[in-house]
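Data availability (excerpt). The following record was deposited with the supplementary files.
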Amino acid sequence: MDYRRLLQVLSTLSLGLLLCNCASAQSTRVYRVLVISSLQQGVPWNMNAMATFEHTLMSSVDENNEEIELHIDYMHTKRIRVDRHYLDFKSGLLADEFHKLKHDLVICIGSDALSFMLSRGNNIFPNIPVLFCAVGTDEAARARQKPLYEGISGDWNLGANIQLALDLFPDTKQMVFVHDNTTSGNASAVDALDFAQKYPDVDFTFITDETMPKVLKKVRLLPKDSTLFILPFSIDKKGEFFVSASGMRKIISASNTPSFGLWQYLINNGIIGGLLIDEKEYGKTIAKCAIRILRAGGFKGVRVPYITPARYMFDWKQLHHFKPHAASMPSSYVIVNRRESFIETHKTPILVGLSVLVFFAGLGVTLSINTLRRMRAEEALRVSEERLNLAVNATSDGIWDWNIDTGSIYCSPRCSAVLGYESDEMHGMLTFIKDLVDSEDAKLASEALQAHLENGSSSYQAEYRVKTKQGDCRWVLVQGKAVERNQNGIAMRMVGTITDITTRKQAEQEKLQYEKKLDEQKRQFYRETILSVTGGKFRICQYAEIDEFIERAEAGAFFDSMETTSNARKDVESFFRSKGLDEDRTSLIMMGVGEAITNVIKHACDGGEIFAGTDSKGVWAVVRDKGDGIESLLIPKVVLMQGYSTKPSLGYGYSIMLDVSDRILLATGQAGTSILLMKYFTDEPMHFPMDQDDPKV
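Predicted structure:
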């Protein structure tokens, strides 16, 4: 065997395998991405976002032996009438153009592009992940219900910008929104209209479906108490298209009122600012999300951000011109177009010169200034203490200052006068409530205090009884507020007042007792009058007297509707007949029962109960409810005036009950109303005693 030849063959084979492995290791992974955009070429927002998107997408794959084959298709739906014919044409065009290419990802930008993919996309690009962006929140939610659809919601921060405008210009009476009649323009207007309910004192006005000259004319005539919002406006009523910022600039320049927008490119075109979408960051977010989806082969394990990148930005010139409410500016924001003063331009040499001047000048006068400051501070402190003492001594309220961290509490002399305790005898509000507040009030007082300290309610206020050092009980009103909290929101200091309200509480109690006594006297007078007028037939009594009848009732039912009311009446009527009451008397007593039930239905929302029974003289029925009872002043009218009722009625009320019953007992009050109607077996005259003890009703 020729070993040299064999060695040569093996070497060649090994070299070939090595080259194949190297070629395989260095092979490039090609991703195909199709972008379908319903936004327009030339629109600043789209230009900035798409340029950043392409740059980020391409630069992210170069280092990993990856390559992006990017196809971009603009639908131009703002210029072209979108109907079934156009969508069919677009579907056929895309199918013909890309029928041989297998895309790894489709990106939809804008509402029209997403709508197109949802209706036609599966036929053209089956089983391909679809990443959408620049769409409304509701549209995004509906699209996510589809398999293989995920995206970035188009939260344009409209609500935050409306609130910002009202904070900066609180005298605003009218908000004017300019938008076109495109899908995105109308969607933005609908979102704005939803916020109108939150601000009922502000008139929300919309300028749309107009030519540019008419839009400019309306904007020029806006009153001074208006603010202007620029929503999507790229095409006017005549079909004139505005692909650059010039159209927006015309509208904003025509306004004499502060203007707000939603996109960052408008900050240099006349708007005052706002929470603006960063188009470049938006494009970068879409690109990074697309890279993760491509490498993962779909959405599984890929987190798609739902938040649109935005930041607060303001134009210094516009702020200087319109002078908004400075205290309402957000805590963090960016200022553009700031005009530097002479001092800012020459800051370094001026600071050096001033430093030298201040050093030599200050060297000679430092001691004098320090002495003068100390004297002034001492005088100011003395005057301040005198004023505070005068204010504290002049008020009728005690003032307290609680250091929650240490538990110590300061009490003014007035606190000592109310409670009898000195400051060194008080140990914080919690101890005060626990040890001195009446046990019946302590729980409610403690819960109110904890709610203020922990939940951050606006203030603390409670009325409760306290035990003074002398042992008596007084009513006090305690009010306070946490004035210092640490970085975690925990209250560190609380100040407030304590007021002696014992006299007021006693007066309130005396008034209640007087009104109760007066009501009892009225009821007693009405009872005696009604008893006399009806010859003892109608008597106002206590609940217990009627309850005795209910306890020995032989039939009963609950009613709260037309059906249950009818059934209850039938049951009682059958019971009366079964006990031997003749037909005429049964008809009469059932007329009274019907009026009593009608009263319950009219005045008691929860329905009522009816009970029936017999005794040696005849039959009786009790109708009971848990309503508000009959007011004292109305009792004579209700009982003695024929057909009187506090609500519209076709019945005759208590007058018919008096006519058809042989005896009536009535108990009424806050626990409800109970009425007993009795019908005797015979027509023999009955004697009703009128000298019984007066019950307390």
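Summary of structural features: Confidence is low (pLDDT under 50) at residues 1-25, 690-697.
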